């Protein structure tokens, strides 16, 4: 079980340290950790935010635990040398096409959600977003018409193999969890969505235990904030997933608790190759002060055990330890509490 640890910048090293200690606490046999530089720190040491050594280490691993990148002292650099290019480069080189973002309101933290507490309490969904296709990657350009009108244009497209592979990821997650899958599209107006729907229906035949439902994206946005209990796993394309996943995260109301996974196509000996990271950034405003909440990174490590190493039981134990710590009032500054990074990590390990 080879894990590449890429702590990155700002609070990245602080939060990854606690997540690594949680993994070590499980004492899994055969676990080997490698550490590499990414982001601003990599630029400073090697002249590039994603050095070849780091990329090779990532390729050789079964999974990557990523902290965060972003360094205000690198703001003046050319775009391709900025720290944030590291994550884009990893996605591209490693073919990470499936982004998984769970959004869940932990018991006792309903008041942090901008939603009414009784609605927030039922928010527990997993958004599975396609990450490498859609309108972001289609042909695009500018043109001037004969009448002198300036026009910008982008093209949305998906081919069936792209939809099929992301659909399998979502159906597998639904089959392992709550068995409810909602595919979100705009099939009433978009041809891309019509094909999306056809392929999803075809894939559904392989998963008879999963209940499949289709929803238009505009309705889905309303339902996320009015009836989040209607969702289990949500399957959607890159554009709709970008918006819905941020909406769901904001509905949780606490940035330090949200993990994510980006899965590739490669199967490892134990599961699927993937990169795991908190959804927050490098938080330069609190970096180096021991204030960052490491729970999002610890929960990302749990996702790693589940998806890349087939260790569902251990993943569940970590998630339960985090829930228990939260229920006992172990709250970081982002949650209105006063626990620091190391104290939160210790509290989670004690409950583990
Ligand atoms: P951010 O997520 O780093 O911070 C937003 C706010 O949330 C800040 O006030 C910060 O202190 C707080 N915060 C974030 N994580 C926290 C944690 N674990 N515990 C407690 N408080 C936390 O977003 P921001 O400020 O927009 O970006 C900072 C840098 O991070 C930028 O350079 C940005 O490009 C980069 N970034 C990197 C990401 C990545 O590595 N995947 C994702 C998002 C931003
Ligand atoms: Mg976004």
Outline the fold blueprint.
Layout: E1 2-8, H1 12-25, E2 32-35, H2 40-46, H3 52-60, E3 63-68, H4 85-94, E4 98-104, H5 117-120, E5 124-130, E6 140-144, E7 150-154, H6 160-176, E8 180-185, H7 191-204, E9 211-216, H8 217-226, E10 233-236, H9 238-252, E11 259-267, E12 272-278, H10 295-309, H11 312-327, H12 341-351
Parallel strand pairs: 1-2, 1-3, 3-12, 5-10, 8-9, 8-10
Antiparallel strand pairs: 4-5, 4-11, 6-7, 11-12
Helix pairs in contact: 1-10, 1-12, 6-7, 8-9, 10-11, 11-12
Bound molecules: 1,4-dihydronicotinamide adenine dinucleotide and magnesium ion (MG).
The site of 1,4-dihydronicotinamide adenine dinucleotide has 23 residues, from loops.
Cofactor: Mn(2+); Mg(2+)
Subunit structure: Homodimer.
Pfam family, one: Iso_dh
Cα shape: globular
Number of E strands:
12
Strand content: 15-25%
**Widest β-sheet, arrangement of strands:** 2-1-3-12-11-4-5-10-8-9
Biggest β-sheet: count, sense, barrel?
Answer: 10 strands, mixed
Q: Helical proportion?
A: 40-55%
What hetero molecules are in the model? 1,4-dihydronicotinamide adenine dinucleotide, magnesium ion
For this structure, the CATH topology of the largest domain is Isopropylmalate Dehydrogenase
Give a description of the structure.
Pathway: Amino-acid biosynthesis; L-leucine biosynthesis; L-leucine from 3-methyl-2-oxobutanoate: step 3/4. The chain is of the alpha/beta class. The protein has two domains: 1-97 and 265-352, Isopropylmalate Dehydrogenase; 110-253, 3-Layer(aba) Sandwich (Isopropylmalate Dehydrogenase). 40% of the residues lie in helices and 21% in strands. The protein contains twelve helices and twelve strands. Strands 2-1-3-12-11-4-5-10-8-9 form a ten-stranded mixed sheet, sandwiched between helices. Strands 6-7 form a two-stranded antiparallel sheet. Helix 1 (12-25) runs parallel beside helix 12. The longest helix is centred in the middle third of the chain and has 17 residues, at 160-176. 49% of the residues are buried. The chain binds 1,4-dihydronicotinamide adenine dinucleotide and magnesium ion (MG). Residues 242, 246 line the site of magnesium ion (MG). Magnesium ion binds next to helix 9.
């Amino acid at each position: 079980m080879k894990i590449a640890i890429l702590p990155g910048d700002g609070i990245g090293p602080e939060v990854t340290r606690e997540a690594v200690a949680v993994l070590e606490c499980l004492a899994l046999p055969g676990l080997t950790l490698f550490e590499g530089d990414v982001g601003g720190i990599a630029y400073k040491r090697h002249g590039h935010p994603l050095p070849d050594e780091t990329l090779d280490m990532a390729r050789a691993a079964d999974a990557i635990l990523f902290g965060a990148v972003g360094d205000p002292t690198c703001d003046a650099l050319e775009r391709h040398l900025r720290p944030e290019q590291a994550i884009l480069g990893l996605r591209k080189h490693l073919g990470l096409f499936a982004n998984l973002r769970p959004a869940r309101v932990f018991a006792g933290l309903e008041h942090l959600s901008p939603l009414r507490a009784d609605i927030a309490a039922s928010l527990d969904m997993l958004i599975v977003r396609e990450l490498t296709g859609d309108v972001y990657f289609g042909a695009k350009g500018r043109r001037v018409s004969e009448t002198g009108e300036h026009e910008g244009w982008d093209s949305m497209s998906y081919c069936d193999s792209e939809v099929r592979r992301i659909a399998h990821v979502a159906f597998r997650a639904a089959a392992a969890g709550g068995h409810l899958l909602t595919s979100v599209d705009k099939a009433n107006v978009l041809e891309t969505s019509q094909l999306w729907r056809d392929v999803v229906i075809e894939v559904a035949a392989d998963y008879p235990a999963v209940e499949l439902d289709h929803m238009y994206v505009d309705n889905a946005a309303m339902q996320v904030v009015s009836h989040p209990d209607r969702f289990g796993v949500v399957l959607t394309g890159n554009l709709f997933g970008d918006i819905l996943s941020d909406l769901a995260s904001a509905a949780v109301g606490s940035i330090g608790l949200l993990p994510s996974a980006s899965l590739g196509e490669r199967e490892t000996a134990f599961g699927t190759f993937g990169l795991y990271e908190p959804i927050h950034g490098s938080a330069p405003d609190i970096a180096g002060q021991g204030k960052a909440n490491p729970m999002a990174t610890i929960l990302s490590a749990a996702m790693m055990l589940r998806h890349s190493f087939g260790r569902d039981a251990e993943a569940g134990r970590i998630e339960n330890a985090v829930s228990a710590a939260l229920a006992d009032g172990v709250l970081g500054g982002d949650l209105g509490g006063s626990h620091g990074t190391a104290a939160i990590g210790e509290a989670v390990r004690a409950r583990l």
